Amino acid sequence: MKISIVVTQEEHFKFAQEICDTIESSALLRGTGIAKRTPEYIQKKMANGDAMIALADGKFAGFCYIESWQHGKFVAHSGLIVHPDYRSLGLAKKIKSKVFDYSLKRYPDAKIFGITTGLAVMKINSDLGYKPVPFSELTTDPSFWSGCKTCTNYEILKSKENKMCLCTGMLYDPKEKQKDPPRHPFNEAVLKRLKKIKQALFLGKILSFGFLS
């Protein structure tokens, strides 16, 4: 099976609805919040060349798009998704890496950031050199945060004045000297504990943490 990852064009408009449906169904399956996008919005990104799609024998296999904020000062990768038929192949990491390299060329002066609750995405970001940061280091553009309104966790974000949520903020600054391996290696156990703490604080759940003794 040959899978190609390419910059999108108008010929890929036909996959927009399937991409939106796959993103939404994946979020529901994981029980996580997500900022919904319409097929029209995805098509706009495709037409502008701000997205990459993975195709397997002409079929949709994966997708990710780019958003820029504050006149290109910040760039975010959104909608990273792999079709269920092509999971467990390492495709998400390949797509993310391609979009990451493409962003560095297309927006060379921009800081690349993301917010996510997904440990798999955090791992990929960490491998690329992102570091966990407070939301105060991310874009202040209100249009970015308004995109979270369709997320199930938006009321939490709103109550904290866009300063924190269940998501973890991650940032890559191209002006910083990068190390190999990354300066901030991924630690799944720590991030899982952090997620539980946030759930307890923000959702009012009474949880018992074995590491708090």
Q: Can you tell me about this structure?
A:
The chain contains 7 helices and 7 strands. Helix 1 crosses helix 2 and helix 3 crosses helix 4. The C terminus is likely disordered. The chain has a 7-stranded mixed β-sheet, with helices on both faces. It has 213 residues and is of the alpha+beta class. Strand 3 and strand 4 form a beta hairpin. The longest helix has 16 residues. It is globular. The chain starts with a strand and ends in a 10-residue tail after the last helix.
How far is the first residue's CA from the last residue's CA? 51 Å
Number of helices: 7
- Strand arrangement within the widest β-sheet reads 1-2-3-4-5-7-6
Strand content: 15-25%
InterPro entries: Acyl_CoA_acyltransferase, GNAT_dom
Protein name: GNAT family N-acetyltransferase
